[in-house]
Description:
Helix content: 40-55%
Number of strands: 8
Shape: globular
Number of domains: 2
Oligomer: single chain
Radius of gyration: 19 Å
Distance between the termini: 31 Å
Number of helices: 15
Mean pLDDT: 95
Amino acid sequence: MRISYYPGCSLHSTAREYDASTKVVCNALGIELAEVEDWNCCGASSGHATSPYLQQALPLRNLVLAEQQGDDLLVPCAACYQNLKLVDYQAKRGAIREIIQDLKEITGHAYQGSIMVRHPLELFQQKDHLNSLRQKVTRPLAGLCLAPYYGCYLVRPGEVVAFDDPEQPEALARILIRLGAGVTDWSYQTDCCGGSLALTKTDLAVALVSNLVDHAREAGAEALVTACPMCMANLDTRQNAGPAALPVFYITELMALAMGINQDDWWAKHLVDPVPLLRQKRLI
């Protein structure tokens, strides 16, 4: 299958390992990615605080460009995904007609809502991809106990996102089980990590991260798994350094590892070094 691809700012900068691992996993599963040409920032960083108009116009322009490519749109970043998904939801319900008309005058194309905005978790948990993934696992993650972490953006608001339960999501667990990993049962997988407060209220962000890591460890987890660049950056940088720190993985990194696609340079980008854990489990 072919799908348009919106990396967003993070996957071209601080989350390059997420971008790289998403691409190799999709390739292995027979999913062809076509990056949206001339995409722009979705506004998640500051657009929503600067102008309500920009909050809708920035993601809408990306939807217009993706629709012109003719395929559904894959958006790995949780913040980007939420912004694009929300504007797509509003457009399909006739709530932003004036902005759609404005973008038509600028781009020459009025958004018709003919595409779907998808997150990789939504795509990967589909039955055919899960079956394909199971067949391609050559290095099961046996003995590795992981805590799935969605953060507060990825599956909310439930009426807009709708690919998983907003309070008890299961997509990460479904995928991790196919990889042969153990999955912890814990109650904090959708709690906020404080990513949006990392610079303005650092002490609060550190406290929220410490709470998550403590509860993940108490549940028996040896590492955290996410699909959000902001969560990854916050969890990876706000833990106390030392042997008690838990490594944090992107789900696509572990999918690639289990399929025998080992990219050592990915691990070097992690501040909490995952290599000792992976070596202990004889996965690298």
